[in-house]
C-alpha cells in the first residue's frame, strides 16, 4: 500500500470514529439510564390510570411518561422550566399538572402536548385533584384553594383567611374533600369547597404532607416524624396510629386490605389490615432519598417517585424494580 492510499484510509477511519463518537454522544443525550446520572431529576408527583400508563413530574418542568408499566420512560415537553409538584389524570388522555408560580398545565392527548391554564394567583401550587374531566381543585401557598368546574378553562379561589401552606388534597367525589398542610391543618368540605371546616389534628401543629380517603368516612393522613392519622367518621375525629418510623412520611394509599406510605431515606410503611396497623419496609437497596408519592392501581401494581431521579415499580406488590432508561425529548 502506497502512502497516498494509506493517507486516504487513515482519513476514512478517522471520519468513521468521529461519526461513531457523535452517535454515541447523541444517544447519551437522548437516553439516560436510571441511577446517579439522573441526580438532578427529582420527581414530586405521580399519576397512573392503568397498569401500563404512568406520569411523573418534577424539577425543571420535567414531565415523563411510561406506557409499558414503568420500564421505559419518555420525557414530554411541558413548555416550562419551573418545578412541577403534582399531577393527576382522569383517563389515559386528560390530565393536569401544577407547580411553582401558579403554573397549571393541561393535556387532552396523553401528554404529547401541554397547554398552560391561567389562574388568579401566582403562589406555588403543591397539589391537584380532579374527580372527572370537568371538576377539580388545586392547593398551595398562601392558603390557596382553587376550583374549576370547566376542566380548568377558569379557576376561582375558595381560600380560607389564615395564611398557611396547603400541601395536599383528596376528593372522593364532587362534594366531599380534604386538604392537609402546614401546622397540622386539616380542612374538610362537603359542598364542593363552597365552605371549609377545620378538623382537629390530635398531634397539634405537626405538618401533614399527604392525605387519602377510601370513601366519605375512612381516611388517612401522614406527615412529620412518621405520623399516621386515621378517621372512620369523615374527620369528625382523627386518631393517631402507631407508626414504625420516626422520619417524615409524604404519601399514602390504601387499596383493599393493603396500604402503603412513603417517606424519607427510601423508607416505606406497609399495612395488611386496611391501614389499621403498619410495619416498616423498603423499596429495595440503593434508595436512600425521600420518596414523595406512592400510587397503586391494584393490590399488586404500584409506583413510587422521589429525589435524585428515583422511580420504582412493582408488579407483585413485593419486589420493587428500577426502570431501564429515560428518553429525553430536547
TrEMBL record:
Keyword set, alphabetical order: Photosynthesis, Photosystem II
Top-level taxon in the UniProt lineage: Bacteria
Classification via InterPro entries: PSII_CF48-like_dom (IPR028203), WD40/YVTN_repeat-like_dom_sf (IPR015943)
Residue stretches making up the Photosynthesis system II assembly factor Ycf48/Hcf136-like domain: 73-155, 163-242
Transmembrane regions: none
GO biological processes: photosynthesis
Keyword Oxidoreductase: no
Pfam families per UniProt: PSII_BNR
This protein's GO CC annotations: photosystem II
Protein name per the record: Photosynthesis system II assembly factor Ycf48/Hcf136-like domain-containing protein
Organism field: uncultured Desulfobacterium sp
